[in-house]
Amino acid sequence: MRALMVLAMLAPQEAGQDEKRLQEWIEQLGADAIEDREKAEEALKAAGEKAIPFLKKAAESTDAEVKVRAEGILIAITWTIGRQPITIYLDADKKVKMEFVRIPAGTFTMGDKEFEGATPREVTLTKDTWMQTTETTQAQWEAVMGKNPSHFKGVDLPVETVSWEDCQEFLKKLNEKAKDQLKGKAAKLPSEAEWEYACRAGEKGKWCFGDDEKKLGDYAWYWETATHAVGQKKPNAWGLYDMHGNVWEWCEDWCGEYPSGAVTDPTGPAKGVDRCLRGRSWGVGDVFTRSADRGRYLPTGRDNIGGLRVASR
Ligand SMILES: [Ca+2]
């Protein structure tokens, strides 16, 4: 009994000491000596999830040094937490595989005031989602469907010329084929909100890397004449490739106006004419590839710019 009381008395104090230490390290990010800054950086990375609220505050700092370092550590920590991939195999030889990373539940601002029909609103996603790290490839599609409808041919190229309805058939077969490997999770298309949240990976700017248009070529295939093999450019902070450009990615939702105000786990309108696509394709320019940009197409529509990325929950 006495021991329990002692513990109860100590716990808040220890938590307070932890916080104090984290705050000291945050302050040390702006220290004069570079070795002090690096020491603080290492300590904050090691603190992991506990350091996130402190780092988020520091990322808003007017001290450029603190801001840049805090942002870098945040990405590193998020990567570590989210980077627990699951791999599923689609053939007996284990040559064709799909990799998924965990997208942690959270709240973000969805939309962009510069885009029609994408008025910003606060969205909360209450459940973790697993997102395929790349667009679905032709090898993956063929392993499940036994055929390849793509216009540009290549096993590592993203599958295209698939309609939303074709994707539903693919997902149905994928769920049957990989039932044991999915361990109770269902493969599906992401909702628009899940897609944009995963694309932004914590970034509020125009693209997953911020607002600097000059960096777009590091992350995206755009203004091209054909698709490119998936996963060749830089991934976003959560390990997802080609969220901007290469092929459009079908989402689950019917396409409609966003409701106003904050929403939780939105899934789009109950009915509609078009289904939504995200991220744009190889054939267009910079502004259109932005995180909040929305596309729409008939669910039966097929084109060499439209593919998918599988989500799972
Ligand atoms: Ca894409």
Could you explain how this protein is built, in words?
- The protein is an alpha+beta fold.
- The chain has 2 domains: 2-83, Leucine-rich Repeat Variant; 86-312, paralog of FGE (formylglycine-generating enzyme), CATH 3.90.1580.
- The protein has 9 helices and 12 strands.
- It has helices spanning 2-28, 34-47, 52-58, 64-82, 138-145, 164-177, 179-182, 192-200, 216-219; strands spanning 86-89, 97-103, 106-110, 121-125, 129-132, 187-188, 248-254, 263-264, 275-278, 294-297, 306-307, 311-312.
- The strands form 3 sheets. Strands 1-2-5-12-6 form a 5-stranded antiparallel sheet. Strands 10-9-7-11 form a 4-stranded mixed sheet, covered by helices on one side.
- Strand 1 and strand 2 (97-103) form a beta hairpin.
- Helix 3 runs antiparallel to helix 4 (64-82).
- The longest helix has 27 residues, at 2-28.
- The protein is globular, with a radius of gyration of 22 Å.
- The N and C termini lie far apart (44 Å).
- Residues 1-12 have low confidence and may be disordered.
- Calcium ion is lined by residues 135, 242-243, 245-247, 249, 279.
